[in-house]
Write a structure and sequence with these properties.
single chain, Four Helix Bundle (Hemerythrin (Met), subunit A)
């Protein structure tokens, strides 16, 4: 089980480095999904299957979809459409596909193997996580939600402004 942990950790580190160094947003997003999946495997090998499921559902699912929507809002030109067709070449998918294949092989080994992950603590169920998030940590949850919403609204407004907008009071002063 330790070998699977180290391989998943190496995949997570490699995929995260590729996210940071990728110039293309779509490439970075693909590696980000692989990184989240690798972190989920790490959680599973540490005996936290609920955290692994949350990692996949919340991060690899919801946040990646949110990033895709922001990319779709910001790229509305014909040049962006032509560029996206170039990005869908099979050579782009080789890196994330290889790293995902390593994670898939690890999961098959975990589920087929007789070895059960050893846990040093009691498993945490969804009820306890919900009580903790909406109990003593409610302020942090609300602040994270407001921060995400402010980032989306800000990205939308920065991306949609195509021409210079001058306030009506400033137009009168510049005309005089």
């Amino acid at each position: 089980m330790e070998l699977i942990f180290y391989i998943a950790g190496a995949v997570a580190i490699l995929a995260t480095l590729m996210v940071i160094t990728s110039y293309n947003m779509i490439h970075a997003l693909l590696y980000l999904v692989v990184s989240f999946l690798a972190i989920a495997v790490v959680f599973f090998t540490l005996g936290a299957p609920f955290m692994a499921a949350l990692e996949i559902i919340i991060y690899a699912g919801a946040i990646v979809v949110l990033i895709i929507f922001v990319i779709m809002m910001l790229n509305l030109s014909e040049d962006a459409t032509r560029q996206e067709k170039e990005w869908l070449k099979p050579s782009i998918w080789i890196g994330p596909a290889l790293l995902s294949a390593v994670l898939l092989a690890e999961l098959i080994i975990i589920f087929v193997g007789l070895e059960v992950p050893a846990t040093a603590t009691l498993p945490v169920d969804a009820r306890l996580v919900g009580l903790a998030l909406f109990g003593p940590y409610i302020l942090g949850v609300q602040l994270c939600g407001m921060l995400l919403m402010a980032g989306i609204v800000g990205a939308y407004h920065l991306g949609r402004q195509k021409k210079k907008v001058t306030h009506r009071f400033l137009e009168r002063r510049s005309a005089s």
